[in-house]
Amino acid sequence: MITIRHSQQIMTIATATFFAAVCFSSSAYTQSSEPTFSRDVAPIFQEKCQTCHNPEGIGPMPLMNYAQVKPFAALIKDRTTKGIMPPWHNDTTTGIQSFKNDASLSEAQITTIAQWVDEGAIEGNPADLPAPIKLSNGAAWQLSDQLGPPDVIIKSTPYNVVANGQDQWWTPNVRFEGMDKERWLRAAEFKPSYPLGKKVVHHGHAVLIPEGEKRQVALARYGVGKSWEMYPEGTGMRVPAKGTIAWNLHYFPVGIEGDNDVVEVGLWFYPEDRQPEFETAGEAMFRVDGLNGMARGQDIVIPPHGYQVITGTHVLQEPAIIHSYRPHLHMRGKVMTMEAIYPDGRTEVIQQVNKYNHNWQISYIYEDDVKPLLPKGTVLQFTSVFDNTVNNPINPDPNQWVVFGRRGVDEMSHAWVGITYINEEQYATAVGARRASQETLSLD
Ligand code: HEC
């Protein structure tokens, strides 16, 4: 550590001397190697903050220019060095580290921001500013850039949002007449109204019950931090032509009211003549108590000022590929770990979320080359840790006993896992392809 600092200092001095020699003329801005907003920090904010911290975004204050950022400099250093902002709660010391939607700052970016704040949060030369980025409109479909407009749009029935109160649920059933034949879903996006819905819809599901069947087709599941799902190429979900959509919308009042709020879900399908190779059920719920077939949450009993750890196991009856992981706990939830115990006894942490925060429902989407390929008989083991002490910054009341319940002040403990079950032949092919690509990599 010391050596690195030392060499950085030497570099700093060398660069400063260089610029002193070159820029002795009367430039209004002396070039320096200490980080400036314009040159070093603005590009990071464009990449990692402004999608939310813009005048219409869900972030509480815009961070678009120096004047807006400067008053928050100390708070920004605090939140970024603690890993609270941007919201991304993965444990970087264990399990998978390669995600399609990684929102976190790199170590270098965190250091740049901290140094910039420590050295006075200076503006630097506005000429160094990067060109402004184009922010997508909050009312637009996020997937439309990649996929064009949705093939089918479904809508919830209107709901009158109240300004104050406790959690509210809106669960209309709506007929689905969307298509003339069964289709294969490629992607789905859940879109609350904008700007109101984006602020008050905490999470929600749209589940299709096919006509005359008990099967549930979970078209879209949403939480702040997760709004769309796109299945890997060649993987799709079978969607019947007709049925009933059971909406389950959880509104959380934020002091703003509005009538006739409607949530939309956009659906993108594979071409009609194409049947993807893998059929997925999308995100499946894995209970952390492992007690399937029994009432949920019966073993959540968290003592005042105390902790509780619960673990549950699920044996895979078929080989499977895991695409994504989305832990669901409430305000006392702190950690959720997903491990694989392989048939040969080896144990591996697939992923651990160790800074869980109930305000965010983040789906961690795995890069293709790291997606777990699990043989039949693998035990998926989930472990949740609850923190009901004063150390938990969002604990509403550490004096209470906490049990299972739907409200945010009660607890839950399950994971939504994007999983596709495959047959032995598909498993062997997938493992072979993975090995081949790793060998190519190591030869490079
Ligand atoms: C996905 C949206 C999102 C992204 C990306 C994001 N933020 Fe935030 N930020 C929020 C929301 C929402 C809040 C308020 C609620 C909370 O703290 O969770 C917040 C809160 C903050 C706060 C605390 C404000 C206060 O008054 O307490 C700071 C500071 C902050 N963000 C800085 C940043 C910085 C710097 C980045 C980029 C490095 C960033 N955020 C990225 C959404 C976001």
In short:
This protein has 444 residues and is of the alpha+beta class. It has helices spanning 2-22, 37-48, 66-69, 73-81, 107-118, 144-147, 196-200, 424-443; strands at 90-95, 152-155, 159-161, 168-170, 173-176, 183-191, 201-210, 217-223, 228-230, 235-239, 243-251, 258-261, 264-269, 278-279, 283-287, 301-302, 307-315, 320-329, 333-341, 347-353, 364-365, 373-374, 379-387, 402-403, 413-421.
What does this structure look like?
By secondary structure, the chain is an alpha+beta fold. It has three domains: 29-128, no CATH class; 144-277, Jelly Rolls (Sandwich); 283-430, Jelly Rolls (Sandwich), CATH 2.60.120.230. Helix content is 20%, strand content 32%. It contains eight helices and 25 strands. It has helices at 2-22, 37-48, 66-69, 73-81, 107-118, 144-147, 196-200, 424-443, and strands at 90-95, 152-155, 159-161, 168-170, 173-176, 183-191, 201-210, 217-223, 228-230, 235-239, 243-251, 258-261, 264-269, 278-279, 283-287, 301-302, 307-315, 320-329, 333-341, 347-353, 364-365, 373-374, 379-387, 402-403, 413-421. Strands 2, 6, 9, 10, 13 and 14 form a six-stranded mixed β-sheet that branches. Helix 2 crosses helix 5 and helix 4 (73-81) packs antiparallel against helix 5 (107-118). The longest helix is centred in the N-terminal third of the chain and has 21 residues, at 2-22. Mean pLDDT is 88; it is low at 1-28.
